[in-house]
Amino acid sequence: MKATPAAAPRPSRSRVRTTSIAAFVVLAALVPTTAAATGTQEVEAELPYVCALPSGQLPATVRVSAEFPERARAGEAFTPSGVTTTVRLPAEAVADLAAPDAAEVRAATRLDVGVAQNTATATATWRGTAEPVALPETGPLTLVATGDVPSVAGRGDGDLTFSAGALAIDLALGAAEGAATDAATADPGSLTVDCTLAEDAPERGLLATVPVGTDAPGASGAPSSPEPAGTSGASGAPDDGQPDGTGEPRPEGQSERSPKVLENGGAPDRDDVPPCRYDEQHPPTDVSLNAYITGYANVNKMKGAAYLPPSCVLIEQGLPEPGPPDPDYLIFDTVSYADFHYEERKQTPPFEATFLSFDFAPVKATMVMEQTGPMRIDSRMKIRLSDFTTITDTYVRAPLVLRVLDLEVNGTPLDVGSGCRTQTSLTSKDPDPAHFPGDHLVLYGRGEQTVGLPATGYLLLSGGALSGEMSVPAFTGCGSDGEDLDRLLTASVSGPGNFVKQVQGQTCAIAAPVFPSPENEGQCTEDLQPYEIPVAER
Predict the structure, then answer these.
(1) E strand segments, 412-528
(2) Per-residue model confidence as pLDDT tens digits over 222-237
(3) pTM tops 0.85, yes or no
C-alpha cells in the first residue's frame, strides 16, 4: 500500500483514479447485464509483440483467449468471459530477471483492447493476475494471467470489433527460500515491461467481431481498419456536451456513438457493508486513513474460492525515510500499520463459503478472519530521475487466523464449538524472512505514476489490487460433546498454494476529508467513512 509524505498535498481521487474519457464512458458501481445472444464464439489469437527489457527490444508471443457472444443488441452490455492472457518471454528476458537470490516471479498484465464500431472507438483495459511461477534455469518464461474485464455495449447497429493493443507486464521477483537477505537486498527486484504489438501482427491484432443490431450479419471476416484507440472517429458528432441518448452527459471529446465501456462488477449497497469509522475507543490522528477491502481466496482442496465481503480497515500512515542510495532513483521507505475493525474487534465480518468437499459432499461454513498482531505495510517508493516516474512496491504482512463459526455438511449442522480455528496464522512465503519471521499472510501490490498521467496499479491512498499465495494450517479446537472435527476440516481445507486477490478501495483521510463535489469524486462520506466500496476481482 503506497504511503506519501504527510506534509505533501493529498491528491484528489479524481486525479489519482482518473481514466481518459476522450473516447469512452466508464460507469462505476453498475452491475452489467448480459446481452441477448444466440450463442458464444470462442476466440484464441496468438500475436507477436516486441517488449522493452533491460537488455533491449526482445520478441514475445502473447496468446489471448476469451468467449464473446455471437451477436448482441444495440445498447445491451455484455462481458467477454474466460479471458486469459498468456505471455511467453524468450530466454534472453529470463536472463534480465535473474537477480541474485531470485527464484520466482509473479506477474500482473494490463492489455489495452481497442473497441470500435463504425467510425467510433473506445479503449478497455483487460487486467490479469498470474500465479507465482519459478524462474526457469534455461529456456523461455511463460506467464498465464486471468481476470475479469470491463463490459461493453454498442451504441447502435454495426459490427463491434475488439483488437489487442499495448501490453504492460508488472513483474515482481521473489527470493529463493532460505536465501540470506539484508535491508538492501530484501527485495530481489521488480520492473514493468512495456510491450507493443508487432507490425506484422495478423489483422492488426484483431481478437473478435460481434455484430450488433437486430439485422446484424453473422460474425465473420475482419472489419475495416479501426482508427487508433482514443480517437473519436472522423464522422463522430461534434462534441457539444449534450446527452448522447443514454440519459448521461457526454464527456468532452467523446464521439456521439462511441461504444460504452463499463467497469466490471458492481459495488454493494452501503446498507450491506459494516460501518467504517473512528470513534472514542479508536480516535483518529493526523495520519489516520480508513478504507474498505474485499476479494477472493482460493481453496485448492475444494476447487473453489471464498468471497471476503467488504471489510473495514483502519490505517495509520507512516512517514517516509530515505532508502538505499541509487544513481537512477530517489528512494523512500515507509512503514504503516493497519487493523481490521468490526464491532470493536480486529476481524472481518462473518462470511459464508459453500464448496463440494471431496467432490461430492456440499459443505457450507461461516467464518471470520481474526488479526493476532499488527498488520504491517512496507512501501518502497522509487522516483526515476530521468522522467520522475514514481514506482511503488508494497508488501502487506498480516497475522490472521481463520475461525469457523458454523458448519453444515450435506445440509446437516455440525457443532464446531466456540474455539474452532487454524492452529496458526495463514502463512505465505515471505520475500525477506530474516527480517520478518513468524507466520503471516503476505500480499503484494505495485503502483506506477508518470507525471501528467493517471496512476495505475496499487497505491495506498487510491487503493487497487493486492495478491499473494497462502497456506492454510491445520485446524484445532473444532467440535463439542466429544466429537472431534479437526481432522475433517484439516483434510478438507488445509494445505498450500491458495491464491489470494484482495482489492482495497480509495482511502478517506480523516484530517483532510474530500467530500463529493462537481469537481471531485468523493473520498469520504459526511460522517467520515470511506466513500468508495470496492468490488472484488477474481
Answers:
(1) 412-414, 421-422, 441-449, 456-457, 464-472, 475-476, 495-504, 508-509
(2) 333 333 333 333 222 3
(3) no
Max distance between CA atoms of the chain, in angstroms, equals 77
- Hey, which of 22-26, 271-275, 329-333, 386-390 has the most confident mean pLDDT? 329-333
φ and ψ of 72, to 5 deg: -150, 160
- Helices and strands (H and E) in the chain: how many: 3, 29
Grouping H, G, I as helix, E, B as strand and the rest as coil, residue 75 is coil
Residue carrying C-alpha cell 527489457: 53
Tell me which residue of 314, 291, 307 sits closest to 353, measured CA to CA: 307
DSSP state, residue 205: G
CA 448, distance to chain mean position in Å, is 14
Classified as helix, coil or strand, 303 is coil
CB 276 within 8 A of CB 529: yes
For every residue of 1-48, DSSP letters joined together read: -----TTSPPPPHHHHS----SS----TT--PPPPP-S-EEEEEEEEE
pLDDT grade for 355, boundaries at 50, 70 and 90: low
- Residue 195, classified by CB atoms within 10 Å of its CB into exposed (0-12), middle (13-18) or buried (19+), is buried
- Residue 494 has which C-alpha cell? 488445509
Query: Which of the residue ranges 45-54, 239-248, 351-360 has the most confident prediction, judged by mean pLDDT?
Result: 45-54
Mean pLDDT of 141-151: 85
Average pLDDT over residues 295-304: 82
